[in-house]
Amino acid sequence: MGDDEAGRAAEALIPQFQLERLLTQDQAGRRIVLLGSIDSKPAILLAERAAFASDDDHLSTFAASLEHIKNLGANDIYSWFLASSGVSNGASAAQQPPDLKLNLIYPCTEKHVKKYTTQRVRMVTETAETFAKHVRPYMQRNREEGRLNWVFNIIEGRTEQEDVMYREHGEEGFLVLPDLNWDRKTLTSLHLLALVERRDLWSLRDLTRNHIIWLKHMRQKLLDAATKLYPSIEWDELKLYLHYQPTYYHMHIHIVHAMLEAGTTQSVGKAFSLENIISQLEGMPEGKGMADVSLTYFLGEQNELWTNIFLPLKEGQGPSQA
Amino acid sequence: MGDDEAGRAAEALIPQFQLERLLTQDQAGRRIVLLGSIDSKPAILLAERAAFASDDDHLSTFAASLEHIKNLGANDIYSWFLASSGVSNGASAAQQPPDLKLNLIYPCTEKHVKKYTTQRVRMVTETAETFAKHVRPYMQRNREEGRLNWVFNIIEGRTEQEDVMYREHGEEGFLVLPDLNWDRKTLTSLHLLALVERRDLWSLRDLTRNHIIWLKHMRQKLLDAATKLYPSIEWDELKLYLHYQPTYYHMHIHIVHAMLEAGTTQSVGKAFSLENIISQLEGMPEGKGMADVSLTYFLGEQNELWTNIFLPLKEGQGPSQA
C-alpha cells in the first residue's frame, strides 16, 4: 500500500467516528477530546482549532471571506460579533456553530494600536537596594496620585458593593470580589480577588517575619470564604498567589481554582505563591522580610518601571524620577 | 435606528475592512489583531477561534461534518490530519487554510482514555518533615528503578547526541536540549532544557546555601549558552525556572523566552524561578537549604505522590510505600 493510499484510508476513518462521550475540553475550549468508536473498535479523536495563517495573502482576504457575521452588541467604538470562516452553503454547515469571535474597534486611535502591538518583555532583578532606592518611591508616588481611591471606596463600602461576595472587618479584615476575567459561573476557572482591609501593606515587599501569623490566618480565612461561597470546591483545590509587580499597590491576593488553565496571571516571574512566601519568611532570620531579598520578574517594555528604572539602570544611567 | 438595524450596519462594516498590517498573533496563534481601515478611517479587527460547542448534538455530528480532511502522517495507531469545519463549496473558501488540526488514536486503549480524561488537581504543602520521611524515599526508589538511564545516556554521550545543542564539562558542566514542546524555530517561544552534569542534585530540594555560587555560575552559563545559540535574543529576555515536582529526579533547568505564552509549565505551584530560589537561599541562615522549608505545589490526582503520600496524609493515614 502506497503512502497516498494509506493516507486516504486514514482519512476515510474520520467520518465513521461514532461519538460515545466528551473526555476533555481544554485550551480555552479550543481543544476537544472525543471518545467513540470506528467499526466497533474504540477510538479517540482530538480536534483543535488551528492557528491562523499569518501571511499577507490570507490576512488581506480574511475579512472579506467571513460568512454569517452576527453582531452581538456594541458600545461606542467597540462592537463584537460571531462569524464563520469560509463560505458555507451546505446543510450540515448550518448545524455547526460559528467558529470565530470578532471584535471591531472603529474608528480606533494610536492608543489602541499601541495596546495591541506586541510588547517586548524583559526579565529584571530587583535587589533590596533597587527596591528601597527606586521602586518603593515609585510605589509611593503611585499611591499619592490617588490611584487607589477605587480600592478605598470599595473597602469603605461606597462603591461596587454589589460585587463584594464576602467581607470581614478588623485587623484580619478583607473582602472578596470576582476577578474581571472570570465568567462568574464556571467553577473550574474560578478567579477571585481578596483585598485586605489594612492599608499598611502595599505589596509582598512589605511582608516580614512579623506577618507570618497574620498571613496564615488570612490564608485560612480566604480558603474558608471561598469554600463557603462555593461548597462544591474543596480547600485544597484552591491556589493562592500575589503578583509582583501588582497592578495597584494595595495588598491583594488572587484565589483561583487549581484547574484554571495557567496563563500570564499565574506565571513564574509574576505570580508568587502565598504559601511559598510564608515559607520563605519562615526560613529567614529574625527581623528580616521580603524587602531584604532580590526578586526577579518580568516587565513589558512599556511599563514605567522598565522605562524609568530598569532600562536606565541596565544602560548604566541613574533611573529617572518621572 | 433600531437595534437590529444598528446590528446590520455594524455587520456590514466587517467585509469592508482593508488590511494594513498584523499587529499581534497570540493565544497559540489562535488570535490575530489586524490594523486596517474602513472607509479611510483606521480600524482594528480582532479575530479569535471560538471554543467548540460541547453539547451532544454538535459533538455527535462533528466528525461527519468535517471537510477537506487531509492526512499528514501516521505512526502505528496514531495519525494526524488537517481539516475544515463545515461544508465549503465557494471559491473564496478554497483560499482559506484548514481551521482544524485532528489527531486520531485508533484503536485506543484504556490507558489512552485515562490519559485524556480530565484529572482533578490538588494543592499540597510538602513540609520539611514530609519531604524527608516520604518524598525523598519516593525519589530514591524512582531513581533506583533505572528511570534516569536515558538522562545518563545523554550526559555520557551515548544517545540523542544529535539533539544536544550545547555542552560544557566539569563540576559546572551541563548540556542543553530543545524541549519537546518547542517547534525548534519560533524564537519567541524558545524552550530549552539544561541538564546539569553532576548527579548529586535530584531536585531543587537538594539546593543549600553552599550552592549559591554554583547556581549563580550556572545561571550565567545558561544565559551565555542560549544567547550564543540565538544571538538575536538578549540575556534579559530569558526566563529560567525549575519544576517542583519535576518529571524526573535529575536536576534540570528550563530556559524559555520571556515572550513564550505562559502555560502549565510556567505556572505558580509548579515552576520555581531560578533567581528567586537563589534569593531564597541567600535569605536563609548558614547551614540551611531548600530541604528545610515547606513547599506548596499542585498534583494531579493520578500522580503517585498524591495517591501514595498526600491523599493518605490528608485522610489521616500513613502514606503507603507503593
Mean pLDDT of chain A: 91
Distance between the termini of chain A: 71 Å
Largest binding interface between chains: A-B, 131 and 131 residues
Strand order of the largest sheet of chain A: 8-9-10-12-11-13
Oligomeric status: homodimer
Class by helix and strand content of chain A?
Answer: alpha+beta
Major beta sheet of chain A, specifics?
A: 6 strands, antiparallel
Tell me what the structure shows.
The structure is a homodimer of 322-residue chains. With 322 residues, the first copy, chain A, is an alpha+beta fold. Helices cover 30% and strands 28% of the residues of chain A. Chain A is built from nine helices and 14 strands. A six-stranded antiparallel sheet of chain A has the order 8-9-10-12-11-13. In chain A, 36% of the residues are buried. Mean pLDDT of chain A is 91; it is low at 89-94. At the A-B interface, helix 1, strand 1, strand 2, strand 3 and helix 2 of A face helix 1, strand 1, strand 2, strand 3 and helix 2 of B. Chains A, B: The active site is at 252 (nucleophile). Chains A, B: Belongs to the HIT family. Chains A, B: One of its GO terms (biological process) is deadenylation-dependent decapping of nuclear-transcribed mRNA.
Keywords:
homodimer, 322 residues, alpha+beta, six-stranded antiparallel sheet, three-stranded antiparallel sheet, 30% helix, 28% strand, Scavenger_mRNA_decap_enz_N (chains A, B), hydrolase activity (chains A, B)
Short description:
The structure is a homodimer of 322-residue chains. Chain A is α+β, with helices and mostly antiparallel strands.
